[in-house]
Amino acid sequence: MSAREWLTPLLDATQMRQLDRWAIEECGVDGLELMERAGEAVASAVQRLAAEGLVVIVCGKGNNGGDGLVAARLLREASREVEVLMLVDGEQLGGDAKVNLERLQGRPPVPLFEHRADAAAGQPGEQEGRRRDEEGRRRDEEGRRRDEEGRRRDEEGRRRDEEGSEDVQVSASARAALSSAAVIVDALLGTGFSGVPSLAAARAIEAIEAAGAAVIAVDVPSGVDASTGIVKGAAVHAERTVTFDSHKRGLWINPGKRHSGISELVDIGIPRGGRRSRELGLIEPSVLSLLPSRGAASTKFTSGHVLVLGGSANLTGAPRLAGEAAMRAGAGYVTVCVPRSVQHVLASGSRPELMTRGLAERDGALDASAVGEALQASERGGCVVLGPGLSRERGAAAFARELGCRIPVAIVIDADGLNAYCGALEELASRSAPTVLTPHSGELGRLLGVDSEQVEQRRLQSAVDAAKASGAVVVLKGDDTLVAESSGTVAVSPGGSPALATAGTGDVLSGVIAAQLAAGLDAFTAACAGVMMHLLAGRLAAAAQGSAEGVIASDVIDALPRSRSLVNANLSGCCKEGERALRAGSANSADRAGRADCTDPPDGDRRM
After folding, report:
1. Whole-angstrom Cα distance, residue 565 to residue 248?
2. What is the CA angle 29-30-33, rounded to 5?
3. What confidence tier does 340 reach under pLDDT thresholds 50, 70, 90?
C-alpha cells in the first residue's frame, strides 16, 4: 500500500469548489444534473428517516438551497406533504437554484421572516460574497482573492444586521410549519460558509433548533465551517448529514462533528479523475495491514522493545496499563521503569511477562538523578513511553525534560511527561529520533499556552501548531482524534467508540503507539495505526461487555489482538464478522455524538 491509501480524503471548501468547477468546466458535467442527484439523495434520506409526516425544507439562496428545492419537488412527486421556507425572495436566487425554484410545483415557498426586506437588506456582504464565489468557479486564483473580499463584505453585512435589523423575526407561519414537522431539511448555508452566520441566518438556525424535530443537513450543517469544524455562532444539530462526492473536514472534526450526526456520503456524478488530496484524511482500518508480523526467525527483541518510564507513589496503574498495552499490541519485550519504592507494587500486581525496574527517586517520584539509569535501559533500542503516572513533582518534570532531549530512541510522551514541556515545546524540535506526543485538549492547551476551550474550538489548527512547534507527530485525543505531523498532513479518527471514555485508555493508547514505533513503522503511520487499533479494541470491548459503560481500560487491552486479527481477516475477504465489527462499532455509537452506524448502509452510501 503506497501514498497513504489508507487515508480517505477530507476536503475543505476551496478544494470542493475546485472539484465542482473542474467537473463542470473541463469534464462537461451538467451542473443542473449534479444538483438533481444531490436533491434526490436528500429526498431519499428523508424517506428513510421519516416515512410519513410533514417535511419542512429551509432553503438559502445558493446551491445548498437549490439542492433543497430539488428534494422538495421529488418528495411532492412521491406524495409527501412538503413546506418550503425561504431565507430570501425568489428573485434573489440565481443559476441552477433559480431553475429549480421554477420547476417546483404545488404550494409556493413561504417567507421565513415577517420583514423580508429587512432580512434581505441585512446581508449585502453575503450576496456579494456568493456572487464572487460564482466567479471563483471560473477562475481559481481570482476566485480565492474574491472570496477574501466577500468575507470582508460579509462582516460588514453582519455589522449592519446588528445595527439596523434587530426586528427580523421568523414569521408565525414559518414557526407553525417547523413545529409541525416530522423532519426538517437544513438547506440554508453550504460548504462556502465560514465565520458567524448573519442575523437572518442565525434566526433561521435558532428556529430550526427550537422546533425539536429530526434534522437532515444538506452537505454540512448550517453554522459549521466545512473546512475546519469551527462553530462561532448559531449552528444546526443534525440527526444526519447528506454530503456529496467527498467527505468534508468539518463533518469529522469537533465541534462540527457533534453537529453533523451520521454522515452519509453520496456519489452525485463528479468524475473520479479530479484531485482529492490526502493532505487531510480519515483513517481507514486498512492501515493495520501495514503492521509487521512475527515470523519463524523473529525474537522478542526483533518484535520490538518498549520501555515505559513513569509512575509515582500514588500513580502505579498508568505505567502498568501502558506496558501491558504495548505487549498486547505486538511488542516482544516490555520493561516498566518506576521509582524504586513502588517497583514491588508493579512486580507483584502485573502480568508476569511484564518486566519491571526501579530507578532513583525523590519522595516517591523519579527525578533527574534517574536519567543515567533510564538512558542505560534504553540501549536495547526500540521505543520509550515517557510520562504515565510520572506526577507533577518538580524533580519528575526535570527528569522528563532532560531525558526527552537526550534519549536517542523513538519516544511517545504522554500525561505528566507532556506537562513537563509547558512553555518549552520547541525544545523537542532538536530531537533526531521519532517523537510522538499524545495530549488531550487540556494538556495541549498547557503546551501552547492557551486554555482548553480554545483548543476545543480550534482543534485542527491547534494540533497543526503544536506539531510544527515541536517537530513531533501530535495525537490530539478525542472522539475525533487528530494525528498531525510537522509538514501539515493530518489524519482524523472516525471515532464512534464511547467505550474509550474511561480512565486509563489514554495510557493504553500510548503503549499501542509505542509498540508500532518499536516495530519499525514511521512515526505518523505508527500513530495512525495505534489510533485505529485502539478505536477498534474499544468497540470490541463494548460488544463483549454488553455496553460502552461497562468497559474499563484493561478490557480494551484484552481486545487489542482481536482488533488486529479482525482487520486482517476482513481485508482478505474471509470474515463477515470482521466487516460487521468494523462498520458497526459499539451498540450505542450511532447517536448524535457517534459516527459508527449500527445498520447496513443504503446502496450508494459509504460510512465507517
Report:
1. 30
2. 115
3. very high
